[in-house]
Design the sequence.
């Protein structure tokens, strides 16, 4: 299985939200709904506070509970990769996958009622392009690529920089990494 | 301090500020599923144990209520689906890791078994209706066959009834992402609760004194089992990880505390148990019909509270100031 990962540098991210706008534009996400979002996480005790910005989305987990709990197979892995997609023609709108996501990253989007979510812009990935959020980032803090390619930028960053994933204890094995 | 603020707008419908994807439709389905399981189980049990004289209603007439209850539940479940035209997709796949897929197929298997169970006692339970069926040769032959194999059908029904009852709990407990549901005891709790509601239904509807007494005793035993399972569920949450301990707070001072302790534990378990003890011991029979009504209310309350509390339990805790209403007001105030 090809493992696509996103690597986001929290030390360079300024929380501008361009990734969110790029996603909405590229994927025509209806008003009021978001496939990605930015979190400002502050920890510590004043005046020793530490803040990080994180651009968040579906983690395209290697062990995706939304796929294992989908009753119809509508939630599936795209082309033997870890990219989690939903087949609208198979989706009953039962919403089990929404409940199954520990990151609350899935949403009912289409007015007809099927589930929609971040696709890692697979329509761009198959043309060799980066997802819209990554390519639009003004600070260049977002990176996308295959973990299987030993020479990829993402591999290099994860080998050389300290990093984390969100809540690894979910057991879902998420694939969006944050450099810290 | 540790604070996580959403700095871009996010108000995803059904997800923000906390998950609220399933409401009364699903709670009603879980309740009706459990009730159906209990109905089929007790009807089969009375047949297997030859209790027709002690409990004529449960042995010969109760089974007819199973497909009615299940159909009400499946109707409300259908109402909950967002993509209704594609409901048939449940039956173009079998996903071994998805309890919901198992459930969809269990429901399909339960219906024919329920029909066979009804037909096997149709002549003794509904003689005037059965006489119409008997007028047609195929109908008569079918009733003959079902009656001859009555015990075998009852034995076959029991595992499917248990599977139906337990699955409604496993359906929720399989969601690791919702810590409140994520307990192995939930399947058993829902099964026992379903059986208790079915026993209460028999007490409510049956006319013969011996039958009412038998099922009041059965219901009391089931309520005690349910109290033990509730205690085990709470212990399992309290001794779990941080997420489980957080989830427990929802019913320990959090937003569903009153519903859980007053509506489910108090009105649904403790008061009916007390009334049934008073009745069995012969101290007071004046409130005899209240206990089964409370058990049925408690059965629904259990599903509703567990369903809601589970959706509130989460791994993510983001603060957000965004509200689309504020944005709309801003637009309105613009000259």
Sequence:
């Amino acid at each position: 299985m090809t493992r696509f990962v996103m690597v986001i540098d929290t030390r360079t991210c300024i929380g501008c939200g361009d990734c969110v706008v790029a996603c909405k534009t590229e994927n025509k996400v209806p008003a009021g709904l978001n496939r990605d979002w930015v979190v400002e996480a502050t920890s510590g005790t004043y005046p020793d506070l530490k803040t990080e910005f994180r651009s968040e989305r579906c983690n395209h987990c290697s062990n995706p509970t939304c796929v294992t709990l989908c009753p119809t197979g509508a939630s599936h892995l795209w082309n033997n990769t870890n990219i989690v997609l939903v087949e609208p023609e198979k989706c009953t709108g039962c919403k089990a996958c929404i409940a199954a996501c520990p990151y609350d990253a899935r949403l009912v989007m289409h007015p007809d009622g099927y589930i929609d979510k971040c696709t890692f812009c697979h329509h761009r990935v198959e043309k060799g392009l980066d997802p819209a959020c990554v390519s639009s980032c003004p600070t260049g803090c977002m990176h996308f690529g295959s973990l299987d390619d030993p020479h990829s930028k993402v591999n290099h960053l994860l080998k050389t920089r300290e990093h984390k994933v969100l809540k690894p204890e979910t057991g879902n094995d998420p694939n969006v990494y944050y450099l810290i | 301090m540790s604070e996580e603020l959403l700095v871009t707008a996010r108000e995803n419908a059904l997800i923000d500020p906390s998950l609220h994807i399933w409401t009364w439709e699903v709670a009603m389905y879980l309740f009706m599923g459990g009730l159906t399981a209990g109905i089929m189980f007790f009807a089969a049990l009375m047949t297997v144990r030859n209790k027709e004289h002690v409990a004529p209603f449960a042995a010969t007439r109760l089974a007819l209520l199973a497909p009615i209850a299940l159909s009400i539940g499946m109707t409300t479940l259908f109402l909950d689906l967002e993509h209704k035209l594609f409901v048939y997709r449940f039956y173009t796949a079998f996903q071994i890791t998805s309890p919901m897929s198992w459930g969809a197929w269990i429901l399909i298997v339960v219906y024919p078994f329920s029909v066979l169970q009804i037909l096997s006692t149709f002549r003794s339970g509904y003689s005037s209706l059965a006489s119409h069926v008997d007028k047609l040769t195929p109908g008569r032959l079918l009733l003959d066959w079902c009656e001859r194999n009555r015990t075998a059908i009852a034995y076959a029904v029991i595992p499917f009834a248990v599977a139906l009852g337990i699955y409604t709990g496993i359906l929720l407990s399989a969601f690791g992402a919702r810590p409140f549901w994520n307990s192995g005891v939930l399947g058993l709790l829902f099964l026992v609760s379903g059986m208790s509601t079915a026993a209460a239904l028999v007490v409510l509807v049956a006319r013969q004194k011996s039958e009412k007494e038998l099922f009041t005793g059965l219901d009391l035993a089931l309520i005690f089992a349910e109290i033990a399972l509730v205690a085990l569920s709470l212990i399992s949450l309290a001794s779990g990880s941080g997420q489980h301990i957080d989830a427990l707070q929802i019913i320990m001072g959090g937003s569903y505390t009153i519903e859980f302790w007053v509506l489910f534990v108090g009105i649904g378990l403790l008061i009916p148990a007390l009334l049934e003890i008073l009745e069995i011991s012969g101290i007071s029979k004046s409130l005899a019909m209240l206990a089964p009504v409370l058990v049925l209310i408690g059965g629904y309350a259990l599903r509703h509270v567990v369903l809601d509390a589970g959706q509130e339990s989460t791994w993510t805790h983001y603060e957000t100031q965004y509200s689309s209403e504020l944005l709309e007001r801003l637009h309105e105030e613009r000259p």
User: Anything to note?
Assistant: The domain at 4-179 of chain A is CATH 3.30.70.20 (Alpha-Beta Plaits).
